[in-house]
Specification:
2 copies of one chain form a homodimer.
Chain A: H1 8-18, H2 21-25, H3 35-53, H4 57-62, E1 66-68, E2 71-73, H5 76-87, H6 106-119, H7 121-140, H8 143-154, E3 158-163, E4 179-186, E5 189-202, E6 211-220, E7 234-240, E8 251-256, E9 267-272, E10 278-283, H9 289-325, H10 348-380, H11 384-420, H12 431-438, H13 448-461, H14 466-491, H15 498-519, H16 524-528, H17 531-556, H18 562-579, H19 583-592, H20 596-599
Helix pairs in contact in A: 1-17, 3-5, 3-6, 5-7, 6-7, 6-9, 6-10, 7-8, 7-9, 9-10, 9-11, 9-12, 10-11, 10-17, 10-18, 11-12, 11-13, 11-14, 11-17, 13-17, 14-15, 14-17, 15-17, 15-18, 15-19, 17-18, 17-19
């Protein structure tokens, strides 16, 4: 049976042909593996997604987590799916053997996550949080902390959260008020009593597993009892639900949030320290909290992008299946009402809605897998220079990997509903839930606006230019390869790449010119005011590049269905002809740097 | 208290200053009215919206209609609101005195509908359907039919539906299978027995009022028992739930549809004639059904656009209020973490999300009110030529009035969620429901794809060019007025309109050039394949024109708040600078007429 939530042929093409997992397996870090083991892991995750994750996806939406006598009650199918995930040995699969893992590349475990998320994004969130939480502790914790909190998560016995936001502070972490008072030190490190309220905590309370490890941002109170201003005073604490002595920590569930979608992931408001203060152990140095947490946040951002891309893929393949099955109407130009109806897919407008989904969904997923490959190279490339290059590019692309799928995924899902017509608006079909689930992605782990300031303010204007130059080099190399290929192909009257390469080249010039104009602006407020449309334009440039690079890989691929290859080439052309050119009017406005937004008077809205 | 679901200052500006309701009141048909009575009606509808419609909007979403012992149970608040609407004398307000109405212009009752829809779109749907149903019967029915079915609806005692779609046919009405067999004739006209299944029937079954009048499309069986092919064989029937003798007609409720939103409007699957056949009386001639139904469909399409615009306005004003109240973060460039947080509205990205909503929502509502004015002029302009001109322009604009708000409304609502951050994703705030409710609008009463074929295929390429020429004349006149105003203003260094007029002129040229290219294409399939992006580009041209025209009215307005006027001018500029230029890359692709979509092989998706 074909996997019904994602085109696994395309996943295999991207991992094997385009991103060349054989080359990854040749790196010393991944020498235990080969293409065969990679493909087995993906096949295992498809089976798990199909058997254990997908069946309760709708049920989880209809039966959201509820409070019963102060306890959070989840659908039992969620824990059963997580148990199966653990039993399949997938929790620690990309951790080292020291940490109970198999040392798989992140690129491969991203393929795993794509399958699971496409099947059930809300259940996968528990897996995702535990893995990212453990990875932070493994990287920044002491051996005692790793043994106490990371290893049980990697064994699938504990779950984890990240506790950043507070009701009054939202995206503004400088304004958090959770306070930590020193309370001695023990084998687990410097100990504190925490008091404060944390909002939007996914997986914050439930009865699955033996414990929940909360990673909490808080400020260590100064001698006068006040909290240091800004983000520099923030430290990070491991605050377990169950203390090492087996008693409950002073953490109260203050409420559940009732969401538009993504309902199977319980989302909580937690009060730390309503009584004697919640016990927490500092991870890393005092005042280092935000810097350390950024590791988990960056992983979460890439994970959000991957989830959004997987949901976009789900809507695409489900609406594609519907368009193939449902007969309706007659082709344009056919007037004879006695002729039989054709399938939806034979209507040009339905084809348009399918190919837009295809270029957005597959482009987004490709972007995320490319990012995962950078994570692998940053960690495992033999040369220090190559590791640094990968890290630089990954840093630049992280806000794009988070945002392009998050913003374009719901747009794709909207078209999946539209193809289903009235049925798509009912809860009898999946696409409406996919659309609702995906709508969280532009909000959590840093809103689109936050990502945009990160990209333009920190990663581009705040950088010495080397990160952007690295990307420019990659794009130019792809353009050059496409043109060389086109020159060869022209002799055979089969040039498919000259026009797409030209469109990409123009987009690159447009973005670079815009950046130069922004750099020259004396007032950073004018340069940064349009950071969000800049991020979207930049994201389209990046995904255009990805599509051209994939088209080159498709032309070089052997053993793939010719129609499939043709679909890749046409999708590349569609993206370049329709989606990419729309960035130019926006880039012109961004570069103009006028003050329209600021000049709107209070009563003018 | 300010009306919290719509900017009523703006509504008043549009009706009074821009669309000049005083001029309407001078037409003989509206001579009973003046600006004072118009304003009273709007104020009455605001009060009704606030007191009776808004309070159960969320409740209606949470408690969707359900079946209990075969009966549809609705929230009692719905009927109470409808009763209040009737008691306020608003049901027939724009019908003639002969039909129990007050003869108000449609433009004024559109203002009423905007307020009610913004407050509760699902409850307003019952009002809307009854009014449109009654109007069809008043126009095409016999006096006996009017007395039997239209008047009780206009008195608020009966409700009405439109029954077009069938489970197998969706948008393709040529394929309906509901059959009508002649069953004699009586005082109500030619009588038939109907058998068939109708899908997506809003308000199809409930216990409110004394009766439900279903207007049903069906085919009269031919002598050999077969149904005539195509749409020409379709006739229209009034099929009451309760027959004139007081017994139940043979109409069975086959099920309720469970929707993503718009839940307060019960949506049903009805089986006509499971027993002896449902009794129906033909309205109009045999085979005239679709032509007659188009009156109700066109009214419904304008109504859908108005509803979508009103929901866009609701999201805008609610997110504006939130952005003003919620302190968060510090302005760009302010590094001092001890400085107090500012309101969300002080962040440029939030201002961007507000002004995008403003230009889309207010632009959409303005378009609908302009369309309502055309309805009034088509009916009541003293000169036959003026009536014909208005009708021609209305016909051209109807798919735009239906679609621009329906497609752009949800986009605006998406930004309303985003401004609320995580809170916007919870069911504690209204914006997520608004977004879900609005998502129906691109689907019902003809999907966006259907509207696009209507615009490009019938109203433009299938027309002799006079409708488009009429619009072109209107746009050029506005551009000329703006340029004349700009010339005057330039002397005072206060030219606000030269650049917007230029942008609009370029958009007009772009659209006209594209149409010329499409007309020249030998293969209509290539011309029509991109009808949907053409509709969106065309819609942006039309709304750009509306914004420039409104800006001229704002400059001429007296007695309005100067900040409010400034907001109008800046919104006009924003639309012309950011939204409108994006149509040009799309127009270039539409005009290229290549065969990419058709050439994607089956296995290429």
């Amino acid at each position: 049976m074909t996997f019904p939530y994602l085109d696994t042929q395309d996943l295999d093409f991207m991992l094997a042909d385009w991103l060349d997992w054989r080359a990854l397996a040749e790196l010393p870090a991944f020498a235990d593996h080969d293409e065969g083991t990679f493909r087995e892991v993906i096949a295992l995750s498809e089976a798990l997604a199909l058997d254990r994750f997908a069946p309760h996806n709708r049920l989880s939406d209809q039966n959201e987590p509820r409070l019963e006598n102060g306890r959070v009650v989840l659908l039992p199918e969620i824990e059963q799916a997580l148990d199966a995930f653990r039993e399949a040995g997938l929790v620690a699969s990309d951790f080292s053997a020291d940490h109970g893992g198999a040392g798989l590349p992140t690129m491969v475990t991203s393929g795993v996550a794509a399958c699971l998320t496409a099947a059930n994004v809300a259940t996968n969130a528990y897996v995702f949080l535990a893995r990212a939480n453990a990875r932070l502790i493994v990287t920044h914790g002491t051996q005692a902390q790793i043994d106490q909190w990371a290893m049980p998560q990697l064994h699938g016995r504990h779950y984890g959260t990240m506790c950043l936001s507070e009701p009054q502070a939202g995206s503004s972490l400088a304004d958090i008020r959770t306070r930590a008072l020193p309370d001695g030190e023990d084998a687990l490190g410097p100990r504190y009593r925490l008091r404060g309220n944390k909002m939007w905590i996914s997986g914050g309370e439930h009865d699955m597993g033996d414990n929940i490890v909360h990673l909490v941002l808080a400020k260590i109170a100064q001698d006068d009892g006040s909290l240091p201003p800004g983000t520099k005073g923030i430290s990070l604490f491991a605050v377990p639900r169950i203390l090492p002595d087996g008693t409950r920590n002073d953490i109260a569930l203050a409420g559940l949030n009732h969401k538009l979608g993504y309902r199977g992931t319980v989302n909580t408001l937690l009060n730390f320290g309503e009584g004697e203060g919640a016990l927490g152990w500092r991870i890393g140095g005092a005042g280092q909290g935000l810097a350390i947490m950024f590791q988990m946040m960056n992983e979460a951002r890439v994970g959000v992008g991957l989830g959004a891309a997987a949901l976009a893929c789900r809507g695409y393949v489900q609406s594609l299946a519907y368009a193939r099955e449902r007969p309706q109407g007659r082709p344009l130009g056919v007037k004879d009402p006695t002729s039989p109806p054709v399938a939806l897919i034979d209507h040009p407008d339905v084809r348009r809605m399918l190919i837009v989904q295809k270029v957005l969904a597959e482009g987004a997923l490709a972007l995320c897998l490319y990012g995962a490959r950078l994570i692998d190279l940053e960690a495992a490339a033999p040369e220090a220079g190559a590791r640094a290059d990968a890290g630089r590019l990954l840093g630049l692309l992280t806000p794009v990997i988070k945002t392009f799928p998050s913003e374009m995924g719901p747009r794709a899902n909207d078209l999946a509903i539209q193809i289903h017509g009235g049925y798509g608006y009912t809860r009898d079909y999946d696409v409406e839930q996919v659309w609702r689930d995906n709508r969280l992605n532009p909000i959590h782990e840093g809103t689109t606006g936050i990502q945009a300031l990160d990209l333009l303010g920190r990663k581009i204007l705040g950088d010495d230019g080397s990160a952007l130059a690295a990307l420019e080099g990659e794009i130019r190399a792809t353009v050059a390869r496409a043109r060389a290929h086109a020159t060869d192909a022209r002799a055979r009257e089969n040039d498919r790449l000259t026009a797409p390469a030209q469109a990409l080249d123009e987009a690159l010039t447009g973005v670079l010119d815009c950046v130069a104009r922004l750099r020259a602006m004396p007032d950073p407020r004018l340069a940064l005011q349009h950071a969000t449309p800049f991020l979207m334009a930049f994201g389209h440039l990046v995904v255009g590049w990805i599509w051209l690079d994939k088209a080159l890989a498709a032309l070089a691929a052997t053993g793939r269905n010719p129609d499939y290859i043709e679909g890749k080439l046409l999708a590349c052309r569609y993206f370049m002809e329709w989606e990419l050119p729309r960035i130019h009017p926006d880039l012109a406005r961004i570069a103009a740097g006028d003050d329209l937004l600021a000049s709107i008077p209070e009563g003018g809205f």
